[in-house]
Amino acid sequence: MTVTDRHATASQSDLVDEIRSWLADNWDPDLTVAEWWERLGLAGWSHPSLPTNAYGRDLSRSDANLVAKEIAAHGALGAPGGLGLLLAAPTIATHGTQEQIDTFVRDIVTGQRAWCQLFSEPGAGSDLAGLSARAELDGDEWVVNGQKVWTSLGQSADMGMLIARTAPDAPKHQGITWFAIDMHQPGVDVRPLIELTGHAMFNEVFLTDARVPAGDNIGDVNNGWAVTNTTLMHERAGLGSGGGSAGGGVTPGTVADQLGRRVGDTIAAPTTRSRPNPAEARRKSMLQSYADQHAKTDDPLIRQDLARLHTLNEIGRFNTERSKAARAAGRDIPGMANIGKLSMSHIVRLTRDLGLQLAGPAGTLHAYDDAGRAALDEATGDPLLAMITFQALYAQAPPIYGGTDQIQRNIIAERVLGLPKEPGDNKHIPFSELPKNG
Fold it and tell me: Are β-strands 159-165 and 176-182 bridged in parallel, bridged antiparallel, or unpaired?
């Protein structure tokens, strides 16, 4: 063991002692969810990777994961999950003013507000900078008009991370602004999109004369592309590492109406997910259990794919540790977030194919709601089947959301390998003069 390793071990031991002591003094199952999350968030334990001026503790990702494990091991409810904690909080901590941090990040780490991401549009998905939603300044407010699509969990969001065009005569990357927008206003219409699974994680959002206070742009006006890239970086890193909902089955924000529940009851209650957790989607344990139950672990092809799935997960874990070590040394590994996103897509496809291979003809059966799942479980006597078919149907989404696999490869090619960019001068032509989708 090197001196550095011994220092890290001692540091983590101190961290474990600190969080355990804090939990012993502060965890109380008779608190409401809101009261518990306020204690957790204001103490810096909800998102300890954030800087100290943004309700964090400046911890590395691995140390933050250690904190989350200790909270779970104590039997306490974890931090409020969702896109607020994963994307909005670190973006605002990086680009926002202290006043914005105290307004928005505080409500995120304490679970008071849930967030969604208003980025993609029908004509601006892979070419995100080609967005056409517009925000025009009217006195001390911005007036927003446009349409967004593939908005994850928009139906339960209080706030949105909105990017809109504020200078249509500037080149397309230079006329965008990142806003924090209130989703509870007449000009915001959220319409769920039903997926193959029968669930509706994604939505389309129509913005008609929606309002944003002039002070709620994060970063400078017309410099939103830089802010957007920060959000996308955290998104890809989170997806690549299997980031999910830390708060289990408890949804933050006012729409879900769970903040007044007794927090101890949320621990005892079974968790029902309305969407798959990416970390669970790539675990081998469910497929291993299914293979064991159906006596298929002796099949050499099944064993080979189980081993391949395990290998890919281990490579992902090693890459996370490499990234942590590089950051600790003041360095970076270019493209690692994009590689992690590509790896996640590969893992969910392998999980889909292996699961359906294990299920055989039963893989054609799927339950689209809770009643159907109960009937299917009773008919087949196989409760794992619904998980396999859900993942198989859902596996088409991860290679698309968070930036398609093709976009990740383009980024790696151009920004990491230094290959030539696509021909054209679109980055220097005013957006208003570009052809549609140009």
Answer: antiparallel
Per-residue pLDDT at 275 = 40
Q: Rounded to an integer, what is the distance from CA 203 to the centroid of its chain? A: 15
All residues at 6 or more sequence positions from 340 whose CB lies less than 8 Å from its CB, including other chains: 236, 237, 239, 240, 241, 316, 319, 320
Residues 385-418: tens digit of each pLDDT: 988 999 999 898 888 887 789 988 998 999 899 9
Identify whether 13 is part of a domain: yes
26 by DSSP, 3-state: which?
helix
> CB-side exposure of 391: number of CA atoms within 13 Å?
27
Distance of CA 367 to the CA centre of its chain: 26
Phi-psi region for residue 72, left (φ > 0), alpha (ψ -120 to 50) or beta? alpha
**Distance, CA of 438 to CA of 433 (rounded, Å):** 9
On whether both 123 and 84 belong to a single domain, the answer is: no
Cβ atoms 339, 415 nearer than 8 A? no
Segments forming the whole domain that contains residue 137: 115-226
Question: Which structure tokens are listed for 368?
Answer: 């689209």
DSSP line for 140-153: TEEEEEEEEES-TT
What string of DSSP letters covers 239-262? HHTT---TTTTPPPSTTTT-TTSB
Could you give the C-alpha distances from 140 to 146, 185, 211, in angstroms and in order? 20, 17, 10
* Total number of domains constituting the chain: 3
Same domain, 103 and 122: no
